[in-house]
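Write out the 3D structure for:
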Amino acid sequence: MILDERGRRTDAMAAGTVRIAVIGSSVRGTLLVERLVARAAARSGTRPLEIVVFDPHPPGSGRIWRDGQPQTLIMNTVAAQSTVFPDDSVAIDGPITPGPSLAEWCRMVAHDPAGLPSEVAAEAEKTEDWSSPSRLLYGHYLRWAFARIVAFAPAHVRVRVIAERVESLCPDASGWTLATPSGGYPADAVLLAVGWLDRDDAIAHPRVVAAGNPIDQDLTRIAPGSTVAVRGLGMGFFDVVSMLTEGRGGVFSRDLSHYSPSGREPLLIAGSRRGIPYRAKPAFGTPPFFPAQRILRAALPNLIARRPVDFARDVLPLIERDALHDHYATLARVRPAAVRDAPSLLGGLIDGAAAPGELVRAHVQNPDDRLSLTHTADPFAKHTGVDDPDSVVAAIVRDDAAEAALGFDSPMKLALHSYAAARGALIDLVGFGGLTASSFPDYRRFLSIAASFGSGPPLRRSRQLLALHETGVVRFTGPGIAVDVADAGVEVRSPSLTEPVRAEQLIDAWLPAPTVTRTADPLLRALLVAGYARAWQHADGTDSDAVEIRPEDGALIGADGTAVPGLYSVGVPHEDARVFTIIAPVPGTNSSVLRECDAAARSALAHAALARTGSGS
């Protein structure tokens, strides 16, 4: 409802309707709506509740998962491990309202695909639990889920969608006024689910395609046959490569070993700080399992009691020992002769009495069978000084793809799987000051390495990359890429290149981490200026990149250090404080994302109801 000229509340508000605004309607916005609806349905009484959702993009999918993107862009999460519904594993005091995972929804719509485009219905029918679905398919699931949540709302709960961007918030006598381009909207409480926010320090140059989500980057500027520098070798890189190759009519062979160019591809000169593309996920043929992590998890209660702890001294060695344990347990299973007295080695890694290196040397005779996590994180290091970094990187990708193809029988892949999964295990330890400020950079380095180990593409992407390399469409610079951009062109350098490479364009194929101090988001900037938000600080008083919130419910903390009444926020803007926010809910895991959204919805409902009562309505 729009405020009248005098700024008074609408008749509906005066009549006692509780109104809660949700800003952002993608995954977390959908989760918030589901939690608000479920909690309102379970409460005694039928006081009217209106949930007003603001997003210029369709609710459910939002901007990132919106319709119209190519079906060749895929998720790096499997279908059975994607959901927006809680289940009995989620430790919340609110109602549990189960719903299908993405994989279960695919099986549902395969029998009744009414309303789905034919190509989406065909993909849904072929999707297995362990499939990496297209972003397009996931977007359809999210929009279906949002519609289902709204349809199941009780009669006294109304969900309204306003396809506009909220530009600012202003408190009034009994709540907030949300300003959009068309006017002002009142709310008793506001929940922010704004996602990954752009920064204000992106490169602006006609020869640069600035960092961003690949579907938002203008790749039509890349001319066929041109030479293009690509900076970043993570998931954004694989998406960009897909759009500039198969997205332009090129065709991969069925076994992905060969690529037939369309003639519209550019030459891609690709590199990053580490110089190695994200590693392929192992081909398990089933949804990835969650590693036991016996050593880390056994130590967590004591570590949590001692917070803050030093990450490099107290935590990282436990993660590494777990990874080594899984490596040598797998090696002993697939090649028993390679490990002498495997029980003693594995037991020694668990009890931690002896140094891991000493244990391994005593039990694994062949150095080639020993795992060096340092080398695995930086495999190019032993090739320093080579004059052909392109071939070295291609060989590393080829070896990694071969390991990924082994699935459960790859000792290395099971070790990296354990290492990467530790990110989720650490949430309750690290969040909100669990580490010393001096060791937080070590934690960030761990996150970077863990992402390269565990957040990479499905195996087929690495095989496609090798086919593109064989065809001459992609070339690698090796580590330490440096790019100079000028009006006359782009120059690419790296320590391993014998001479600079000239290019016409630069594509930044990575997403810089959001930061509160350099945000380009008008709403967050307005909240900071007005004193309704501030940066979360480490224990030593230095600002982090996160927006500060109250840990128990996501209430924003204002400039004066107190919680801002009726204003809550969830998700990525709080990374560093509430850690590992980039994940989406996974069924059966007591999802921290679902718990976060439930707590924020609970507090928003309580605050809004109190505000209505206090106003006499």
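The radius of gyration is 25 Å.
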